[in-house]
Every structure is written in structure tokens, then in C-alpha cells.
Amino acid sequence: xxxxxxxxxxxxxxxxxxxxxxxxxxxxxxxxxxxxxxxxxxxxxxxxxxxxxxxxxxxxxxxxxxxxxxxxxxxxxxxxxxxxxxxxxxxxxxxxxxxxxxxxxxxxxxxxxxxxxxxxxxxxxxxxxxxxxxxxxxxxxxxxxxxxxxxxxxxxxxxxxxxxxxxxxxxxxxxxxxxxxxxxxxxxxxxxxxxxxxxxxxxxxxxxxxxxxxxxxxxxxxxxxxxxxxx
Amino acid sequence: xxxxxxxxxxxxxxxxxxxxxxxxxxxxxxxxxxxxxxxxxxxxxxxxxxxxxxxxxxxxxxxxxxxxxxxxxxxxxxxxxxxxxxxxxxxxxxxxxxxxxxxxxxxxxxxxxxxxxxxxxxxxxxxxxxxxxxxxxxxxxxxxxxxxxxxxxxxxxxxxxxxxxxxxxxxxxxxxxxxxxxxxxxxxxxxxxxxxxxxxxxxxxxxxxxxxxxxxxxxxxxxxxxxxxxxxxxxxxxxxxxxxxxxxxxxxxxxxxxxxxxxxxxxxxxxxxxxxxxxxxxxxxxxxxxxxxxxxxxxxxxxxxxxxxxxxxxxxxxxxxxxxxxxxxxxxxxxxxxxxxxxxxxxxxxxxxxxxxxxxxxxxxxxxxxxxxxxxxxxxxxxxxxxxxxxxxxxxxxxxxxxxxxxxxxxxxxxxxxxxxxxxxxxxxxxxxxxxxxxxxxxxxxxxxxxxxxxxxxxxxxxxxxxxxxxxxxxxxxxx
Lengths: 231, 480
Fold this sequence. Notes:
The complex is a heterodimer.
Chain A: E1 6-10, H1 14-26, E2 30-34, H2 37-46, E3 51-55, H3 63-73, E4 79-84, H4 88-96, E5 101-105, H5 109-125, E6 134-136, E7 139-142, E8 147-150, E9 153-155, H6 159-169, E10 175-177, H7 178-186, H8 194-208, E11 218-221, E12 225-228
Parallel strand pairs in A: 1-2, 1-3, 3-4, 4-5
Antiparallel strand pairs in A: 6-7, 7-8, 8-9, 10-12, 11-12
Chain B: H1 3-29, H2 34-51, H3 54-72, H4 84-132, H5 140-152, E1 156-161, E2 166-171, H6 177-186, E3 190-192, E4 197-204, E5 207-215, H7 221-285, H8 290-320, E6 328-332, H9 333-343, H10 345-348, E7 353-355, E8 363-367, H11 368-385, E9 392-398, E10 402-409, H12 432-435, H13 442-452, E11 456-462, E12 466-474
Parallel strand pairs in B: 7-9
Antiparallel strand pairs in B: 1-2, 1-5, 3-4, 4-5, 6-8, 9-10, 10-12, 11-12
């Protein structure tokens, strides 16, 4: 990493804020701090950040609303939500509000930095890619030729399977909630038919995974959706 | 008829005779003719019939006929009549006297009866009203006994309650405790008119729940039966009230406990996040010496463990919450079990897990998250309490109405009297804390989850067969 990444931490708890500030600074990030959503928005007006680390539960505007406002004003800045375990609805809501990813409290710094870096990488490269082939691990998906290869061997997919794989592979490392997958593949009138997804995902796993019971590419985000592994 | 009653009748007859003789003397003295004399005698007989009764009136009427014959018909001063019209007059007089006596006596008896009936009803009404006002904070039986005695103005009341085998007395009843109880055991209602004592079996529906003895009362059979019914209702009502309030108290304390657990678990998360991010941050910076690194790794590892415990506690608190809402979906059990085994890899350690070769596929309509929790808990238990490195076997069987999931491990014998208790919250089998650490929450969660799905959780355990936990989920919960 050449340039130091500039990250804004929005968190109401002073202890967590300080700990994140110290550790992330030591790990080479440049950290800005905000105690709530209002403060975060005013800091974003003054400084260009590479990413925002946003607590979901905060007094005042609250994490979700802050996320929504940052997304509409600064769509290029990826947001990583700090969520609590067992609050899956919150996670889905955060992703729907425009968050790029989430990390569940309490987290390990290694996981947090990995998510931060990949979110920033995605944000910087997403503008470039269009219909060019995507390669992740031993998988290659070519949208133009409508072709998928695993270690050079063609994998035959149904149109729905192809669409699903393309959607996931174009968002590597990013959690995609069930409803977003459903609407993007089946259409806007779908959103609750998770059974369709489950069947399609299990078919897809049988075709692309080495061990479908222990998937390495299409990972399950419990109660939230799916995440395709990163390149 | 008692002696006193006989004496009363005799006195009344004597008074009636005296009055009849006096009337005769007055009529004779003032030279009344037969018809006038007959009229005043008829008046006397009617009055006696109304006031006293038929017997008195009939005797007086016969005397009147004799007097009228002797003093007012030809020939005078002889019990004989020559004129036919005198015969007719006296026979008519006697007939009318008897008829009027009979009728007026009936009227007065009915009036007396309805008056008595009214007063009984009044007492019963009063009793039923007061039964509603009993103080539920105090023992109801004693209050009931006193209330019945004072309202019915009885000499004494004894009440035996078969629920708590408690005998209550009020007033003076010459009856032994044993006699009161025997009414309940023999299930016989009895009335003793000499001592005016009634014994009644108290019933709730057809089931006997106690006995009631009322001594020295003036009520009829029907009123005593009604009193017994009222008493039975009052006892049942008090019982259901106390059962309801204790259930309510239990619910409230459970709710409170859940809320406190939830709050605590959430409160723990924030400092845990600080600890975890600091410890893992220190490790990530890679500037520590060997010892420092090991110590920080220990902090990190245990912060993670503490977090797991907190998360589990939080989940438990939610599950124990009264309004647990299920998010049901169609679940392929084989898949769910496989993913649960994957998720519990750390807990399972060296225990190999086998799926029964003849295991059925098993589709259930259930809450995925909760079912995963239950399976995780059972796998965790099997690994913790099973013999070291022994295998764990999972099976799914579809029966007509239910789907049966079983998880078997070797060893960890659970004695029969423990098999219900281990599903209770915070219960730990004696000695189990020496075998493995635990909170005594896990199995209560399993039970709560299966019951929320209208299923059952149970355990079988034997020296040679090992220990098997069964989860039964109904297949009819929702047909797709």
C-alpha cells in the first residue's frame, strides 16, 4: 500500500473510538473521528476520506440514516458498518441503506483492516470494469462470451445460474443480501422467495465448488445473504 | 309431632271451645235466632282456621253445631231437631265451616311457606354476594366457614378441603373431624332432622373436592344443596385465582430475567469490542516480544470466549422471552445438519460425527436460526459429555405425523430421575460440572425451541446404548 488510507471512524463509545484510533494509526491508516452522524457529515465536507467506519447504534441521527446521507452525498466513499451479532435485520437494513460491508462487534483488527482495504479497492476499481472477464481464484467468467471456466475447463450453467454467478463475481468480497440477489435476477416483484435462491445457490455450488458442503467461493452470510470470495 | 306441639294444639282447642261457648252464651242471652247464631259461629270457625289450623277449626265447628242444636232449634235444650230446615241449616253450616277452614288453612300455609322460602333465598343471595367479597390474600376456607355460619344463622359449620386436607370449623358443631372427612370419602349427603344437621359432599363438576357439615340450621334441603354448590365454587375460584397469580408472577419474573440478561449482554458488548480491537490490534502491529505477544494473544482469545458466552446468553434471553416469534421456512434437515456439524467443528474436536446411512431427508417447516441453535447445543453437549474421542451419530426419521432428529453419543449416562430435570433452566446434573464447564442453559434452550415449534425434546440414556437426545418436530405445522 503506497498512500496512507484516510478513514473516518463514527462511533459514540469513547473506548472503542480510542482503541480503533490507536491501532489503525499504528497500522498505517490516517484516522478521523466523529461521535455521531451529524459530526461525521460535517467532517466529510472538510476532508476527503477513503472509507467510513460507521457504528449502527448511535444517538441522534443513528447509523442507518447517517449511512443513507453519506451514500447520497458521497457515493464514491465506501461505508463499513459496525453491527452487533444476532441483529441480522440491522445488517440487511445497513446494506440496503448503501453500506458496502459490515463487521460484527467485537471484531479482530485483522478482519476489520482486510474489509476496509477490500472495500476501498472495490470503490477505486468499480468505475473501470464493465464487460471485461472476471477472474477469481481458478474461476473465470466472461460476460461477452457468456462463458464460465474453472481451471480452463468450461462449466455449463443455466441462464439463471450464469446471471447469479455474474452478479456475485462482479461484487467480490461484498455481502449481497437475499432481497438484492432476488430482485436483480428474478425481477423487482421478487424479494422474499429465499427458497429459490437456496436451490439456485446449491446447484451453482455443485458446479463450481470443489466441495459443495464446504464452499470456498460462494460463502453464506447467515440470515443476510451471500458473499463471493475476494480475488 | 313433639310434645310441645301437642300441648299447643290442646291449648288452642280449649281456647276455641271457650270462645264457641262464649258466643253461644251471648247469642242465647240476647235472643238471637238460628241464622244470626250460625253466622257468628261461622265467623269464629273461619277465624280459627285462618289463625291456627284445620284440626282446631273442625273441632270447634262440631261443638258449634252441638250448641246451635241444643240452644236454637226446636225442641230447645235437646240434641234433637224436628224441623227439616234446621237439619239443612246445621249440615250446611258444618259443611261450609269445614270447607272454609280447609281453604283458609291452605292459604295461610302457602303464605308461611313462601315467606320461609323467601327468607332462605335471601340468605343464599347474601351468602353468594359475600362469597365474592372474600379476601383472597387470606385463607379462604376459614372465611367461608364463618360466612356460612353467620349468614345461615346456623349453630356451627365444618368445612373440609380435600386439596390441602384442611379442616375449618366455625361456631359449635357437635361433630368429630373424622365425621366431616368421612362425608367426603363415602361421598354421601345426609340430613339429620333431630339435630338439624346436614352433610354435603362439595363437588366441582362431578369431582368431589371436600365436604361441608352445617349443624343446627333451619334451612330446607334445596337451600343446603345450593349452599354446598356455592361453597364448592368459592373454593375452586380461590384455587384458580391463586394458580393464576402464581403463574403471572412466574411469567413476570421470567420476563424480568430475560430483560436483565438482554441488557447485561448488550452492555458487555461495548467494552468487549474495545478489549478485542485493542488486543487484536496489538497482535497485528507485530511489535511485541515473545512473552508480550503470548499474553496479548491470551487476552484476545479469552475476550473472544467471553463474547461467545455473552452472545449465547443474549440469545437465550431472547428465546426465553414470552413472545418468541418464529420465522418459519422450508428446511432441508440433511443440509442443516451438515452445516451445523461444520459450524461446530471447534466444539466437536476429535469426536467423529456420523450420519446414519439410512437417514431420511426430512423437510421441516421451522425457524432455521433457532433450529441451528438447538442442533449446535446438542452437538456441543454430545462432544462435551460423550466419552473422549467417541463418535457421535445423527439420524433423521420421518414418521407419519412427526420428524424425529436424534443425536447419540457414547457414555454420559443420565439417570432416569434426571432426564426431565436436565431440560430445566440453570439445572446441572450432580457431578456434571466436574466433567465439563457449562451454564445449565443449553438444554433449556433446546426445549424452548422445540416447544416453540410445537415439538418435544427428550433424552434416552443407558449404560450400553449411550445417550440419545431426540427432537420431535410436527410435520403438520405447515404443509407446503
